[in-house]
């Protein structure tokens, strides 16, 4: 459910600031920065981003020409959001079917409203990655969102599923570590867990509790950085009651 975006802005400091804003919204993935319209056209045609943010304060004419030129080459136009310190280009942006127009400096509320409206108007279909477990001529396909965790078993790996099934693969845990979606993290020499099912992190006892099955998995000091990252991810969607 991610939206890819690029920025066209000759001001590197301004574009970096904006990237930091969008880091708080995990649905948006940065694909590149262009300093002018020529670079912008190249990056757009190469990556076909969902959204293009354009600073119109320099070379506005060339930027509007870029938008018109895109119609020649792409089937689905990206959503264009213009930015400027004044309202001087607002009418031209409207004529060119810009999705929105922001006044600089950035206003966090304006950004939030635009991004929420964008996601409402152009919803992304969620695709669930699958993983194939092969054993000789037997192929099993597992939806990754149904996997609670992976457990090492000598030179094999057990997939513990949400419905209670255990599916075994005759490969090491390391084999799967780099090929799983980003919501899977290594927490122990013997465990990789799906962070979507974590209900509790207990640093004192070095355990992670799961929402399903009331299981508790240990984590080791060598993977504490991963646990800290997990804690930050979970905190973004949590109301804290800590004093």
From TrEMBL:
Keywords: DNA-binding. The keyword DNA-binding applies. PANTHER family: STAGE 0 SPORULATION PROTEIN A HOMOLOG (PTHR37299:SF1), TRANSCRIPTIONAL REGULATOR-RELATED (PTHR37299). This is DNA-binding LytR/AlgR family response regulator. The keyword DNA-binding applies. GO terms for molecular function: DNA binding; phosphorelay response regulator activity. Residues 131-236 form the HTH LytTR-type domain. It comes from the Bacteria. It comes from Saonia flava. SUPFAM superfamilies: CheY-like. Residues 4-119 form the Response regulatory domain. Pfam families: LytTR.
């Amino acid at each position: 459910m991610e939206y890819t975006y690029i920025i066209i802005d000759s001001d590197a400091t301004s574009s970096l600031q904006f990237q930091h804003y969008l880091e708080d919204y995990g649905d948006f993935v940065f694909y590149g920065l262009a300093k002018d319209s020529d670079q912008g056209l190249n990056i757009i045609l190469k990556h076909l981003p969902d959204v293009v943010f354009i600073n119109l304060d320099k070379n506005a004419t060339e930027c509007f020409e870029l938008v018109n030129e895109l119609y020649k080459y792409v089937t689905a136009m990206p959503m264009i959001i213009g930015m400027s310190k004044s309202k001087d280009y607002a009418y031209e942006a409207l004529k060119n079917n810009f999705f929105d127009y922001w006044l600089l400096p950035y206003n966090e509320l304006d950004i939030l409203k635009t991004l929420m409206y964008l996601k409402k108007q152009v919803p992304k279909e969620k695709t669930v990655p699958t993983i194939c477990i092969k054993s000789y001529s037997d192929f099993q396909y597992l939806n990754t969102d149904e996997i609670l965790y992976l457990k090492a078993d000598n030179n094999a790996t057990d997939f513990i599923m949400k419905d209670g099934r255990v599916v075994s693969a005759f490969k090491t845990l390391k084999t799967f570590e780099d090929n799983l979606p980003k919501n899977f993290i290594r927490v122990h020499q013997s465990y990789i867990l799906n962070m979507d099912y974590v209900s509790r992190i207990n640093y004192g006892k070095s355990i992670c509790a799961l929402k399903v099955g009331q299981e508790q998995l240990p984590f080791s000091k060598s993977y504490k950085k991963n646990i800290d990252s997990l804690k930050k991810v979970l905190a973004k969607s949590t109301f804290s009651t800590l004093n």
